[in-house]
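Troubleshooting log. The previous structure file for this entry was overwritten by mistake, so regenerating from the original sequence record. Sequence copied from the archived sheet and checked twice against the printout by T.R.
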Amino acid sequence: MRIPDYITTAQTNLLRTKLRTFLTVLAFVIGTFTISMTTAFSQGLRSYINTQIEAYGTPNMILVGLTSNNQQSSSSGVPYYQSGRVTDGGGRDGKVAYTMNGQDLAKIKAVPNVQGAFANYNVSADYIQYGDQQKYTVQVSSAYPGVSTTLAAGAYPSAAQTDGLVLPYPYVEALGFQDAGSLVGKTVSLHATNPATGTSRSYAMAVTGVLPDTAHVPSAVLSYQTVTAMAQFEGGSADTFKDITVVTSSNPTKAMRLQIKDTLQSDGYQVQTYDDLLSNFSGPLNIITYGLDGFAGIALLAATIGIVNTLLMSVLERTQEIGLLKALGMRRSGITFIYLTEAASIGFWGGILGVVGAILLGTIANPILTRTLFKGIGHAHILSYPLPYMAAIIGGAMIIGLLAGTLPAVRAGRLDPIDALRRE
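Regenerated output below.
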């Protein structure tokens, strides 16, 4: 027999006992449906968290600061003075934040795999305005060459663009536009004031992009040249800044990020990578995912027992048929393969129906959840169904079916044809 013949025979045998086969497949459907839903929830939540985090950092961006350590403090806990650096004060815990300078920039740029290092300046804007419309408060931060995230529309300003601006999503409606795309290309006014002199300055900024809709409103992202100019206008020094943003290659590996972090920490710097941001969320999320998958595993265990029972009953009911097939020349391996195919078929159909059912439910539930339970947390499909994960669930169901069908299949293959034909 060819493989298609084995598959056809297995499907025919399963249809002989429709109700029993249906109930066994149903048990697998429940298990795979539950795993598909927990996977969809965890993947949707991971995607949502990544979107939130990307509003504040990307995998190729590393934040570097300088904080005093125990070796830089006296026995009483008071940090030592460091020439050329300003502190934010200190306490008996011996921890103060030092400002950084051009020497730090040069030192950090020399670290292997670092493609760029940029000073972070403390700047603030009074308001943003489009035309002569309402004025709105806005927080601002710097764009860095080589750093970008997925945007709702548009793109980050290029390295050569001195007046580019990426706005948070809520400003689309606030500034009077229907969608993010219609805001891109417009010119807005950014107003800042020097706190020492009281003088004001307005910056004409071209909106190059709009950030995704997130739960919290992030800072607007300005061209690096504009931030530098604002810092100097507001009385800051171009040679003194709070911390440094390091830019690596566009797709750095986790090992590369860790290597850079270790190098910088060995030089006394305080380092925060994208992995550090993710770790704050991944631990609790993994616990939830494992717990939900555990409940789904119980359902699959019950389905596995059902397959064993179904196929053992099938062996008993078809004993004479097995004996006749062996008497006609079918080998033990052929009989075994038929039963293994039946077991895999039960897993396959249970996996297909469970996954398809979960995807259909997600298609219906996502818009409803976005408008109700998850309203106000940004645009997100809280149920996500990545194709590789869904295919793995179906494949896993087939493997579980094969393992569960091994005992009945081996038992069927070992039946003696003479004894089988005698049995009534």
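The longest helix spans residues 274-317. Archived copy saved in two places this time.
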